[in-house]
Each structure stands twice: as structure tokens, then as C-alpha cells.
Give the backbone structure.
Amino acid sequence: QKEVEQNSGPLSVPEGAIASLNCTYSDRVSQSFFWYRQYSGKSPELIMSIYSNGDKEDGRFTAQLNKASQYVSLLIRDSQPSDSATYLCAVTPVGGYQKVTFGTGTKLQVIP
Amino acid sequence: ETGVTQSPTHLIKTRGQQVTLRCSSQSGHNTVSWYQQALGQGPQFIFQYYREEENGRGNFPPRFSGLQFPNYSSELNVNALELDDSALYLCASSLESMDPHPYFGPGTRLTVL
């Protein structure tokens, strides 16, 4: 079982719709959870972090965490063509050095 | 505040050669991590340096080695290059080893022929 699993996609949504990206992780004691956006040929850019169960909203982005189900999601409201990118889910362990473990990413395509 | 910078941006090497990649951390950051991202994959953790000491390593062979300098800049060295080493190499800096927010540089694209 992979440590962090994501559907590779592509996930296609029409402009203005809600895009829902999902991620599961295997290490029950994971502590910190992140969503990164990566445009083709560019490095990952942190867009959301979440540390406790529930929802966290930042503009058009909402991260949701359910530690009991080992599940993290990212909702993008009012999707724009500029949101088209690969979204990487990442987790870090409790304590020690901060090894960030990434999923393989979900490619999102927003259709104008 | 300056961000993380990496050099070179692109590099082509042949199998068996050695390569050195460089990274300058974001101002004030004393921790640097290196990641390898193969095409279509997520970044994979290579190792982390904190105050010039390696304090964590992923599943990479010893031919991947690194250094961190007193000014917190860093190098990644790869010996005996293999075709599978072709990837985007990402440097990330953070304020302390426990800072959960690595800030990535633009990366170095390495191609091994």
C-alpha cells in the first residue's frame, strides 16, 4: 500500500464548477497535511495546510481532514482555467525530521 | 525576502558521470531538504540537513550525498549516474527542522543519457 494515494486523473470540470480532489494516507499517526499545486514544468507551490479534523477554508479553497478515515480532500469552488494543474497531497509524520511524503498527484483540467 | 534559488536550471549528463546541484535557502532558513521528482510522480524525499548536519534520509543509495554550508546553502551530489536518475531535483528550505512548510525552489532538471 502506498503511503499517500491519489487518483491520478485527469479530473475534468467545467469552468465555475466545484472540483473535488481526494487523498488517503496509510500512517495513522501522520501529523500535518498539505496540498500543493504544480503547474507543468514548475516546482510545487503550497496552497493549503491542515492539522486538525474538520474543514479549513481559504478563499476558493477548502481542505477537509478526517483522521479516523485517514482521508484528506481539497475542494476548489468556482474553478477557473488557471486552476488547471497537478495537485499533490502531502503528509508529515509526528516528531523527528520533517520528511514530507507526497502522493503522485491528481491532474485537474478546468474546461472553459 | 529572497526565495529559494537553485542552479543550474537544466543539466545533461551521461551514465556513469557525477553531478553537483546547488541550492541557496530562503533568507533566515536553516534547514534544507532535497527531493527527486520523476516524470508523472510526486517528489520523493532524499535527505534533510539542519545546521550543516544530515538529520534524515529517504530510500536513496549512498551515491546520493549532500552538504550544507555555514550560510545554509546546500549541494546535492550524485555519483555514478544512472538513467533512472533523470528527474526534477527540488530543494526546499524551512525555518527549523520541525517547520512543516517546506518552500520549494524552482528545481534542476537533470537528464542522464
Remarks:
- Chain A touches chain B through 24 residues (CB under 8 Å).
